[in-house]
Amino acid sequence: MRGATHAKWAACAVAVVLTATACGGGDSGGGGGGADGIVSSSWGDPQNPLEPANTNEVQGGKVLDMVFRGLKRYNPKTGAAEDMLAEKIETSDSMNFTVTVKDGWTFSNGQKVTAKSFVDAWNYGASLKNNQKNAYFFGQIAGYDKVHPASGSQSAQTLSGLKVTGPQTFTVKLDQKFSTWPDTLGYAAFAPLPQSFFDDHAAWLKKPVGNGPYTIKSYTKGSQMSLRKWDGYPGDDKAQNGGIDLKVYTDNNTAYTDLVAGNLDLVDDIPASQLKNVKADLGDRYINTPAGIIQTLAFPFYDDAWNKPDSDKVRKGLSMAINRKQITETIFNNTRTPATDWTSPVLGVKGGYKSGFCGSLCDYDPAEAKKMIAEGGGIPGGQVKIGYNADTGSHKDWVDAVCNSINNALGNDKACVGSPTGTFADFRNKIGQQKMTGPFRAGWQMDYPLIQNFLQPLYYTDASSNDGKWSNEQFDKLVNQANAESDTAKAVKTFQDAQAVVRDNMAAIPLWYQNGSAGYSQNVSNVALNPFSVPVYNEIKVN
């Protein structure tokens, strides 16, 4: 996720978009195991307002996962797509679907969850005039080209492929066969919306209302978001705590220090600089588990300097100049694994992961790297500037290590430097405005456990998380073929063919697969990360 999409297949600080209800942002009272069973966790401000169809990055996604429930939910242990609000989803041709929504569900404001709640939400998300970052998720539904044309104004207000057929039923017509389409419906973009969202949109944005196990109590931008258990939640995954206080940190090392001192209950991204200490500091309260995350370097293909004939040789050379094994061992203390494809091992072989798919292009080979870059015309401007956000994730450490590796391989200590942007939100805005002048970090956390999710959102022409604006007709054609394939094994094989196009063009440099890495205090228990590397907040218990 980018985020990141997918488919044809002076009184007090107040938030800019979500306004705090009171100064101080809630009743957390500081450290772990707070009053009324409140869990405190590290966090970063989301890039956008928390509309489900407008959130495609991790921090906002954490909140949506607590506040909303959709037709499907991904099992927090296996990642499998399981029915949540879907009573059933039926099809006879993998193109026309009938969806039955479970009865008895409401939003936290008491409004009923109906078929219309989904259809209205999806139409809103798809509409060009609403400018939702996840609009592309609805691109496989018939009529998308009318409500969200590639150019010009929309000629329809709603998707022709969506029809409400009863209080709890609706039909979906796709524009091509997509056998695994129901498995995508656990992603937050497909969440239902209450009527209050449409009646008073501005008020809803100030205090979003959903149908999940938590409600939003308050939010002070740059400080804290407070969520509280919704006692009326009808699902079987009720919150096992009184609420979650998401505390904003601009430095993960500070968050880690607060955790060790007992002033914070949970840090879900252990800083690289603390990995050597974490076992001694936390013991069995340290979590290190495989996750559906890959880190890559994306390129600004909208910049002609990086998109010339033979530029692929420069990108391939840079890939071979990176000593992934050394970096994952020394910087990440083996909480990362060198990437050898563009997906994730959590998919398994049947799901499309193929070890070694990148071949020699992901092997550290200084001599070949130097030769390849020279054949490609050399590094644009004579220097690689790797863009990253400086606030969370200790990115400076690994970016410096990557640059040192490139500099050593090329025999030039100025061939590569880091180019930090202060905050994650500013970094994402710069990317969205196409202001990157060199490669930039582009980690991807899967939205759902399908090989399609690692490829189409990132590399399909004009996909919403295709931040580098790479475009390739053969790749697009293969993705369309794979989506239309009703046989899963054949679909996976065709997606791998599409991945080969990514490889042969080095559309992005795969760096490493990321484990989920977290730590928690003695004040809480039953803490786990799901396959998306997100804490299973509703299962955490306060001791």
Specify the biggest β-sheet. Answer: 6 strands, antiparallel
N-C termini distance: 32 Å
Rg is 23 Å
Low-pLDDT sequence parts: 2-32
Rough outline: globular
Q: How many strands?
A: 20
**Amount of beta strand:** 15-25%
Structural class designation: alpha+beta
**Helix-residue proportion:** 25-40%
Mean pLDDT: 91
| Count of helix runs | 16
Describe this entry's structure for a reader.
The two termini are 32 Å apart. Strands 11, 12, 13, 16, 17 and 18 form a six-stranded antiparallel beta sheet that branches. The chain has a four-stranded mixed beta sheet with strand order 1-10-9-8, covered by helices on one side. Residues 2-32 have low confidence and may be disordered. The protein is of the alpha+beta class and 543 residues long. Strand 14 (384-389), helix 12 (395-410) and strand 15 (416-421) form a beta-alpha-beta unit. The chain is globular, with a radius of gyration of 23 Å. The protein has 16 helices and 20 strands. It has helices spanning 58-67, 115-126, 144-147, 195-199, 201-206, 252-260, 278-282, 311-320, 324-330, 348-351, 366-375, 395-410, 424-432, 451-459, 473-484, 488-505; strands at residues 38-43, 72-74, 81-83, 86-91, 96-101, 162-166, 169-173, 214-220, 224-229, 243-248, 266-267, 286-298, 336-338, 384-389, 416-421, 440-441, 444-445, 508-520, 524-525, 541-542.
